[in-house]
From TrEMBL:
Organism for this UniProt entry: Devosia ginsengisoli
Ranges for domain HTH lacI-type: 22-76
Molecular function terms from GO: DNA-binding transcription factor activity; transcription cis-regulatory region binding
Origin superkingdom: Bacteria
Alphabetic keyword roster: DNA-binding, Transcription, Transcription regulation
Stated name of the protein: LacI family DNA-binding transcriptional regulator
Stretches the record annotates as Disordered: 1-22
Pfam family, one: Peripla_BP_3
Database matches in PROSITE patterns: HTH_LACI_2 (PS50932)
Amino acid sequence: MSDDDLPTAAKGKRGVKPSGKPTLKTIAQMTGFAVTTISRALNNAPELAQETRDRVQKIAAEIGYLPDRAALRLKTGRTNVIALVLEPDEQIYGFGSSIVTGLTEAVRDTAYHVVITPLFRNVQPIEPIRHIVRNRMADGVIFSKAESFDERIRFLIDSEFPFVSHGRTNWPEQHPSVDFNNESYAYGAVKRLVQKGCRKVSIVLPDSALTYTDHLKTGMARAAAEAGIEHEFAADVNLGSPTDAIRNYVMKRTKRPDGPDGWVCASEVSALAVIGGLNEAGRVVGQTAHVVAKQSSQMFAQFQPGAETVFEDFVDAGRRLGSVLLRRIAGEGPEGLQQLTEPKFDWKD
């Protein structure tokens, strides 16, 4: 759209930023369009020409327009907010940033914005969920580390509040979820370790309450039984343990005569600790000991000599979480809103 095509009221106002907080009326004055047209354009109303929507949205971005969420909530009952609950360590290890990247891509062409709600260590996981729901701080919520019988999910189902969990549960009701098939991952990883000649395999598991802990245990036990080898689950440490504790455990366990010669790792951080413990025990990863790890970033590739990896795409998980939640917010039933990503094994012999 050129200047000649703009309504008369808009000519000569390109590049002029208003003083004070921009409103719909501000954009209307700058474009010459009616306030109702501005509102529809910002909400991507399909009956408007794409050129009009693009023009209005461009000006809104240039002048820093943000909707009045309080007024929006009073008028429509909506906030146009998606809440993502994250623990601080999820952000530190890159999980959070990857999820946010994918999630923002999913909502990019919508009226929704992503707001991160922190879950601190001294706070019960249900508390930020209750706060969001009871105060109607968002139209939907996303969270991770789903437990087998997660009270957050029970609360959200009973509250009829849109949500999607990163991870599955054992509740009988179907609910929206996005997950990685950790049972298949553990099964395939053990099969690979058997190919490498391993006779006893181990894994540092997540917290026992998490659903994917059972998935990992099931896949590992099944593959070991089929291959006729021994398997064990690391004692006294889990994925939440300090890396020093994991490294020391692996070192001491490896030095024993009945120590494992193969390790399945459920995260990059634990894999680095396992590799460090094996090195301190005098093992050479890829020769006298073998490791298969999940990889979710390029960083790990720089520090995992000898280990083999299976990629878990958290950016894609973020896209899926956003897409599923938008469908749920739009009124789609929970049936069919479960997505399970399969691991891809690309072994290099």
